[in-house]
Amino acid sequence: MRLASFKSSFFSTRSPKGAKSYASFLRPSLRASIALLLAGATMSSALANEQFASCTAALADKAKQEGVSQQTIDNVFPRLVHQDRVIELDRSQPEFVQTFPGYFSKRVTDWRTEKGKEMYAKHDKLLHKLSEKYGVPPHYLLAFWGLETNFGSYKGKMPVLDSLATLACDKRRSTYFTQEFLVAVKLMEREKLQKEDMIGSWAGAMGHTQFMPSAYTHYAIDGDGDGQINLWASEEDALSSAANFLASLGWERAFRWGREVQLPENFDYQESGYKNRKSLSEWNAQGVKKADGSELGDDDTTAYVIVPAGHNGPAFIAYKNFRVIMRWNNSEFYAIAVGVLADRIAGASGIKATLPDLPAYSRKDIIALQSKLNDLGFDVGKPDGIIGPATREGIRNYQISNNMIADGFPGLEVMAALNIDLASKANS
């Protein structure tokens, strides 16, 4: 029960005429304890508000020093509101660990594919103009747009300036978010935006393409020619900005993101991953083929193999632009989803391999796995429930020592071999 509700139920409930109030039935000691609790909460809230007001006053001084007008400062800073929910989200850890099948199946959908094709037809002229100028094919721009905001149907619901000010006034990442907040204020002034219209993610990502303020400032451009760059209201601005951003990140014209592949039965999974880049000719010589069984062909282009769901799942080969996608969002899952969704919007059928049926591992499952690997001498660092490079390396070394396929993936066979009692399975 929230404290306000608790207080209301005991002290604000009306009683029939002539009846005693609820408070009169409470023992004096209990009444005193409740009073102290309420007083403490009030003092804590007052202190937090005072600290936030002091911080935003300091931010206002910085804004003025960096050229923000007094009118903007007077209009914005007194209206900033601390967002408790932002701090909760910044501190929260997900209960479950996302596996590739769950991630992919929720993002590369028939709806997004068909909506992408619809948006292709709507913006055909602009998309091809952008492709000629920046080298980014239309279906990639649409895939980013679809994954970021469902083509603009959901751009977030948090007040951006309030969220950024809250994070700027929090010690954990104050330096980064102070800069982002000040940039956002300057953007509001530069583009004549209204504070209440600047809605986005809890961390401050904005508009159709979910740009952080610094990306908005450096890469957003006026795509519709109205003299304003508005990533919330203008689809043309958003698509043009995405093309400019990707080109600036190093997108290479005429290259794909990668493709699904078939691996030979004797494939050494220790050769997968970014550190093991080889030319397509070399992969072709090792028996790696396209998903339809045809030859990869001879080419000097470097690429690397990815097995995001282990040896029982699909395999992909990633080209140079795959890493560009990861500079937008540093996740292999995300980059694969962008690539496959783009292919589907362009008319391809999607991946051919079947996604393995994996449970949604809980953080407790992964912590138990990491602890067991450490106990056996396969050092993965402090157990944290995150499947990072050290954990994958520890799994791979365990698999090698136990004559298992060394794909570095926490598959069910690994969990069973290590006698991990899956909490996620018990709760399913």
From TrEMBL:
Gene Ontology biological-process annotations: peptidoglycan catabolic process
Keyword entries, A-Z: Signal
Peptidoglycan binding-like domain span: 363-418
Residue ranges annotated for the Transglycosylase SLT domain, each copy included: 51-343
GO MF, one example: peptidoglycan lytic transglycosylase activity
SUPFAM superfamilies assigned: Lysozyme-like, PGBD-like
InterPro entries (alphabetical): Lysozyme-like_dom_sf (IPR023346), MltB-like (IPR043426), MltB_2 (IPR011970), Peptidoglycan-bd-like (IPR002477), PGBD-like_sf (IPR036365), PGBDSf (IPR036366), SLT_2 (IPR031304)
Residues in the signal sequence: 1-48
Cell cycle found in the keyword field: no
Record Pfam families: PG_binding_1 (PF01471), SLT_2 (PF13406)
NCBIfam families xref list: MltB_2
Identification of the protein by name: Lytic murein transglycosylase
Species in which this protein is naturally found: Alteromonas portus
